[in-house]
């Protein structure tokens, strides 16, 4: 997968480039808006990470120009501009995601992978499994060791999200945006409460434990680890 990073802060740009290369991506880095604009218009990328406050041409203008010519490259706006109005503007211009600085690289990486997966054809959409847990999507049922587990609609959606991205750390803010369709407020514990209730149903009386807390980062559904921090 080939990514373009448009970031005028040299340290931030190099940090992103190096981290994404180490994560297995091919990465081009543009340190100004005009260079980023030219690359985005003339080359093919799977995803663009775009700053908004650039010294020569704004990220707003770049994304608007790309969408005006029907460039469908997925774009994450990564910016210090974090007001509701800024986010609404970004999404209205065609951004696929919006992340506010300062940011967690782990969360950015999770969001990149989540967006890129949208273009990957899914196989066996009817059932999702982990260990002896089986989720039947058409029937909207969940069983573990053959025993039916009753879930609320939101618990079902949360478990489905965990199963689709099992093995990966999912930050709370990403869970909030993808499952609850809302911005995560760090002063609330709605995600933690929901995960705790889901754990009580699918993990409390079964082995191995599936849902794990990754301290300071989020949650992971993984069959192969036993740590629960």
Automatic annotation (TrEMBL):
Pfam family, any one: Trans_reg_C
Keyword Phosphoprotein: yes
Keywords: DNA-binding, Phosphoprotein, Transcription, Transcription regulation, Two-component regulatory system
GO MF term (any one): phosphorelay response regulator activity
PTM-bearing positions, type 4-aspartylphosphate: 51
Chain ranges of the Response regulatory domain: 2-116
UniProt cross-references to SUPFAM superfamilies, sorted A to Z: C-terminal effector domain of the bipartite response regulators (SSF46894), CheY-like (SSF52172)
UniProt xrefs under Gene3D superfamilies: 3.40.50.2300, 6.10.250.690, Winged helix-like DNA-binding domain superfamily/Winged helix DNA-binding domain
GO biological process: regulation of DNA-templated transcription
Residue ranges constituting the OmpR/PhoB-type domain according to the UniProt record: 125-223
GO cellular component, one term: cytosol
DNA-binding stretch(es), residue numbering of this chain: 125-223
Coiled coil: none
PANTHER family per UniProt: REGULATOR OF RPOS, TRANSCRIPTIONAL REGULATORY PROTEIN CUSR-RELATED
Protein name, entry field: Two-component system copper resistance phosphate regulon response regulator CusR
Lineage, highest ranks first: Bacteria, Pseudomonadati, Pseudomonadota, Gammaproteobacteria, Orbales
């Amino acid at each position: 997968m080939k990514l373009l990073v448009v970031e005028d802060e040299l340290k931030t740009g190099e940090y992103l480039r190096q981290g994404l290369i180490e994560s297995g991506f091919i990465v081009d880095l543009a340190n100004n808006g005009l260079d980023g604009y030219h690359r985005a218009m003339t080359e093919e990328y799977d995803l663009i990470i775009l700053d908004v406050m650039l010294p020569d041409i704004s990220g707003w203008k770049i994304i608007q120009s790309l969408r005006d010519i029907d460039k469908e490259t997925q774009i994450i706006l990564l910016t210090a501009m974090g007001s509701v109005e800024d986010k609404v503007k970004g999404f209205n211009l065609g951004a696929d995601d919006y992340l506010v600085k300062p940011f967690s690289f782990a969360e950015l990486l999770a969001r990149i992978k989540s967006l890129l997966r949208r273009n990957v054809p899914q196989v066996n959409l009817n059932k999702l499994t982990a260990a002896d847990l089986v989720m039947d999507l058409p029937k909207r049922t969940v069983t573990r060791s053959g025993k039916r587990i009753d879930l609320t609609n939101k618990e079902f959606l949360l478990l489905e999200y965990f199963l689709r991205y099992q093995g990966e750390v999912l930050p709370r803010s990403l869970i909030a945006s993808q499952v609850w369709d809302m911005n995560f407020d760090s002063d609330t514990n709605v995600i933690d409460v929901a995960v705790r209730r889901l754990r009580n149903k699918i993990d409390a009386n079964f082995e191995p434990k599936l849902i794990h807390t990754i301290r300071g980062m989020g949650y992971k559904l993984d069959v192969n680890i036993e740590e629960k921090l």
